[in-house]
# Entry
Amino acid sequence: MDPARRAEELRAQLREASHRYYVLDAPTLSDAEYDRLFRELEELERAHPELVTRDSPTQRVGAAPSEKFGKVTHSRQMMSLANAMKDEELGEFAERIRRLLGEEKARFVVEPKLDGLAVTLRYENGKFVQGATRGDGLVGEDVTQNLRTIKAIPLQLAGDPPRLFEARGEVFIPKADFVRMNEERERAGEPTFVNPRNSAAGSLRQLDPRETARRPLSIFFYEVGESSEKFASHWRKLARLRELGLRTNPENKLCESLEEVRAAYQALLQKRHDIPYEIDGAVVKVDSEDQRRRLGAVSRTPRWAIAWKFPAEEEATTVENIFVSVGRTGALTPVAALKPVHVGGVTVSRATLHNEDELRRKDVRVGDRVFLRRAGDVIPEIVRVIVESRPPEGLPEFQMPRTCPACGAEVHREPGEAITRCTNLSCPAQLVGRLRHFAAAMDVVGLGEETCIRLVQTGLVKTPADLYTLPRDQWLSLERMGEKSVDNLLAALERSKRTSLRRFISALGIRLVGEATALALARRFGSAEALLDASLDDLQSVRDVGPEVAGQIFEFLQKPENRAALRRLLEAGIAPEPEAQVSAAGPFAGKTVVLTGTMAGYTREEAKAEIERRGGRVAGTVSRKTDLVVAGADAGSKLKKAEELGVRVVDESGFRELLQVPGFAQERAEAGGPEHRG
# Structure
């Protein structure tokens, strides 16, 4: 293709993508696709300098400000950063610095690259007077009133502030807050947000500041703009930001060499999913302000900084088909079969659509182009359909089946429920799911999905109890089952007979009964026989078991086939051990505890077991109902939340002391002991 024509095509695509991403908050390109197009245009313009235009995306930063807000001209340009996609490109960045500085040594600061919205805040005599978005780097939008609603932003600087101080930062929404916000919007019948970045941008640019105040926005500051104070290094600027009460990222690292930079990047990459906010890379900056001045900048980016991005975790792909799978409870789940795409370090070819309501909400259809996201080891998820990519004539909607695709029985959806279920209790797909769940709960190593499918297809196993009575020669008759595999599996089944009552209850696969409910039932009833005899009132009296859960348990236990299957398991030799009884006066009795960070003497599971043994309950999030937070090393947002709410916090040594005393050391409101509080 003619270079001039291709360059214009790329500019048009990138301009449209930037407009949708920054102005409309409705992206049509994934970050990885945008980066590829941008780099292609850069290389094309480098090879053909005559093609460079003043309005090319390579010659500017970001997008034009919205007309909804007043405009603010930045006193100093808010530049964007060049990207490094791999280690070799970081090396090229360092080599350019070496050529320009000669033998002079350079130190670097490595900061997490937050996926949010860049802003600048102006303080005069310590008072916050104006805030603006980055906009195109030269002119941004005046969002002063909206920024004032963010609790992490001080309206008055601490200590002895300078006459003029401009702080630059990134506004974002923490992951947990984003999930809660979407859940609330879903309950209210409102559309959910695509991702934290888009929702942060949209929240900050609400015309009504009261609406912004309802959104869980936060901020980290990473730079000083115009200031009546002068600084010798970036590291000192970060320290000054903290002194003035402006949050900086606790993950920031000062690095003496390129090797330390690489180590800091790898550390962020490894922990990215444990960090309570979205990051998509690391920003590497030269520390010395004098070296920065000498290195200078090109029109769009500084030569002294680069964004070293993580491998893409959001990609665009095509839905090639939609099929329905059947789970152990008979739930029919629509699943999208995708054109294989590499995302989050693995090749993905399918993604769950959860249920019919979710499928309709996202409006996924065969043939659609979609954004696919995979964070950590979670199941890949379709984030959004790129509706603009549909053909003019449209695509047909997917229809959920009226009969079970596994057994042909009728399906039914209860009023008020999102799940459609197969009505056939003997459905083979449900049996495979129940066997897999049972094996996982009872820790039967070696009993995977393929083996479960063959057991069901051959008719050798109809309930989990059959696993314990199936003769060795019939195990050997299964395809791909050799003598060693069978012997290992039989040994695992034998070991599983010595299990806890909580594991046994969990393995039964009762709807709505998870690990915490199974533990509560085990403690309340003490044996499988007592649970079988429990009345509905007995079940409703169990802590944290509400009427709906109690009803599900009671209904399950009253079915003759379930009672018979449970008794067969006990007759096969399974002897569930009772849970240790807890005293009502134990040190954690009746208390809700949250664990955060890492401890030298306890794994997370060990600490949880110690608390539960003493009558406590371990929760995943901090709220006003939390009684205690145990904070180990590298504690994150949970510690901050506890300090904001005034929840009692102890470190590892304080936790050890609480384990030794006969009662909960002191009430939350009391001071003293090996603790600190917010």
